[in-house]
Specification:
The strands form four sheets. The chain has a seven-stranded parallel sheet with strand order 3-2-1-4-5-6-11, with helices on both faces. Strands 7-10 form a two-stranded parallel ribbon. The protein folds into two domains: 216 residues, NAD(P)-binding Rossmann-like Domain (Rossmann fold, 3-Layer(aba) Sandwich); 67 residues, Alpha-Beta Complex (UDP-galactose 4-epimerase, domain 1), CATH 3.90.25. The longest helix is centred in the N-terminal third of the chain and has 20 residues. The mean pLDDT is 93. It is globular. The chain is α/β, with parallel strands linked by helices. It is built from eleven helices and 13 strands.
Length: 306
């Protein structure tokens, strides 16, 4: 049994990770300022009966640093970080102070390990087809401020590791999807919301652009394995399979007569992304087991029956 702290634990990925940590028998402290997360996301975790504490705090606050000293976690998971759709100035400017807040608290109170999740699309940017599935470490020209920020965060993690001995594992996540995801945070959730409301969906760009879609259970399994593995590494968490946005819409809207209308491509959207998971298999013993067809089918099963 270990004591873990999950920053951003009331969010989509965080709340699922909290459930996994409790199921594994760990004591869990959830830290969330509820700016994007919700206590409702923790309902299932609260019903599990394990050792769970919630703290309504911002990770940049002095109170957070004091909490880390009081609770003395073995590992801090930092999920309150850049969102896959991060292009607005607020989320970008908050991301680095949030990471520094976590790392400084870890330094002051001798926490040995920090695990972070960074959207792979922001880390890698536009990668040529011949280099897909993309391997860790490939660098491209910056496509925007969020791309630069993602690389800066990895650099900061390395500095704290070298100078202060804080081990880290940075998971470069594909497009994670599943229940509890907000429509504004992922295309699968946006499409599911449209279907449930009975309205046509919106596709930015041609719909031919591809992404590597990772089911939430698989993503959480990778995070759990990073508890004590993959030190000092960036590790891709993806299926290695590129799926187009049009294909995803067809899977989500299956059985309905709804349409998807095309609109202007968003700034900083990449054309294609698939992630090599060879390092994840070697370092974490991890591999995805849920295909995008099966994962989306499980989401459709949650739709209200008409």
């Amino acid at each position: 049994m270990a004591r873990v702290m999950v920053c951003g634990g009331a969010g989509f990925i965080g709340s699922h990770l909290v459930e996994r940590q409790l199921a594994d028998g760990h004591d869990v402290d959830v830290v969330d300022d509820l700016s994007t997360g919700s206590l409702a996301n923790l309902a299932a975790a609260r019903s599990m009966g394990g050792s769970l504490r919630f703290h309504h705090l911002d990770v940049t606050s002095l109170e957070f640093a004091e909490l880390v000293g009081l609770r003395n976690p073995e590992v801090i998971y930092h999920l309150a970080i850049l969102q896959p759709s991060a292009s607005d100035s607020l989320s970008i400017t908050r991301s680095l102070p949030a990471l520094l807040g976590v790392l400084e608290a870890a330094r002051r109170h001798r926490v040995g390990r920090v695990v972070v999740a960074i959207p792979a699309g922001l880390l890698y940017g536009e990668i040529e087809a011949k280099h897909q599935p993309v391997k860790e470490g490939r660098r491209t020209e910056a496509i925007g401020v969020s791309h630069v920020m993602a690389h800066t965060m990895v650099d900061v993690l390395n500095v704290y590791r070298e100078r202060y001995g804080i081990e880290f594992c940075a998971l470069a996540m594909g497009n994670v999807y599943g229940v509890r995801q907000r429509p504004q945070d992922g295309v699968v959730a946006a499409f599911a919301s449209a279907v449930v409301r009975g309205i046509d969906a919106e596709i930015f760009g041609s719909g031919k652009q591809t992404r590597d879609f990772v089911f939430i259970d698989d993503a959480v399994d990778a995070l759990a394995r990073a508890h004590d593995r993959g030190g000092g590494l960036v590790i891709n968490i993806g299926t290695g399979v590129a799926t187009s946005i049009e294909e995803v819409w067809k899977l989500v809207a299956m059985g309905s007569s709804l349409k998807a209308r095309k609109t202007t491509t968003r700034e900083e959207d990449v054309t294609r992304l698939a992630l090599s998971n060879v390092r994840a298999k070697i370092q974490l013993g991890w591999a995805p087991w849920t295909s995008v067809v099966d994962g989306i089918a499980s989401i459709r099963d949650t739709f209200p029956k008409r």
